[in-house]
Amino acid sequence: MIGGSTIEAELAKLQPPVQAAGITREERLARIEKARKLTRDLGADALLVGAGASLNYFTGVPWGASERLVALFLPVEGEPLIICPYFERGSLEADLKIEADLRLWQEDESPHALVGQAMRDVGASKLAVDPAMSFEMVNRLGRETGLELIEAGPVINGCRMYKSAAELALMQQAKSMTLEVHRATSRIMREGITTTEVINFIEAAHRRLGAAGNSFVIVQFGRATAFPHGLPGVQTLRENDLVLIDTGCYVQGYTSDITRTYVYGGATDEQQRIWDVEKEAQAAAFARAEVGIPCEAVDAAARAVLERHGLGPDYNLPGLPHRTGHGIGLSIHEPAYLVRGDKTLLAPGMCFSNEPMIVVPDRFGVRLEDHMYVTDNGAKWFTEPQPAIDRV
Question: What whole-number distance in Å separates Cα of residue 188 and Cα of residue 178?
Answer without folding.
Answer: 16
